[in-house]
Amino acid sequence: MKELDPLLHSQLRLAVMSILMNVDEADFVYLKEKTSSTAGNLSVQLDKLFAAGYISVEKSFVGKKTRTLCKVTAKGREAFEQYVEDLKKLLKIS
Amino acid sequence: MKELDPLLHSQLRLAVMSILMNVDEADFVYLKEKTSSTAGNLSVQLDKLFAAGYISVEKSFVGKKTRTLCKVTAKGREAFEQYVEDLKKLLKIS
DNA sequence: TAATTTGGTTTATAAAATAAACTGTATTAC
DNA sequence: GTAATACAGTTTATTTTATAAACCAAATTA
């Protein structure tokens, strides 16, 4: 049986990736609202996605406020698509 | 964002449920082989699925050997289908 | 009859997810 | 002007989960 990518098989990380797959760029605040997660949890999970090379994270200032912008990378996109494939197979949705 | 049923959002439990959805009855040994899990892990996860009322577990003797037969219950079937729906929405598979 | 296999369960450990507490800057209220 | 609140996060601690390791009883094989 095919292993599901453990990095993606997490509620919050999967939700984040799903958003980024469709939106192509989103900031911390937006992701937090959309996923209704806590800031702490989101911060940790974004770090993990970043460490895996699945997303890019860019911190900038908008006026005087910090802004954390996330984008899915090519590697992340590929991993997500593979995950969906694996899941379909597992669930026999195909 | 819809919460994914945490009882099903686990690699091994999901695999077990997926098998039971298609096979309708399977014993411990079969599930162990199909999922390539360890006996300990499988035992624990089957307990959880049973405790949730998602599967029925029947222990019997075949000759002199014990046999643990699992079936998905109506509740389990429903939960699984709901989970797949939720996942599709989350992944925007449609 | 001693060692191994089968079919598991129980307990211990490792890894995750989540929450709580904290930081620094900015804004608002008095 | 300064005390209090809010914003945008990060870090650390706690809880929950998953997994692995150790164990058990009965049966089989050497």
UniProtKB/TrEMBL annotation, chains A, B:
Origin superkingdom: Bacteria
Domain Winged helix DNA-binding residues, every copy: 12-91
PANTHER family named in the record: BSL7504 PROTEIN
The protein's name in its UniProt record: Transcriptional regulator
Organism whose genome encodes this protein: Candidatus Amulumruptor caecigallinarius
Native organism taxonomy: Bacteria, Pseudomonadati, Bacteroidota, Bacteroidia, Bacteroidales
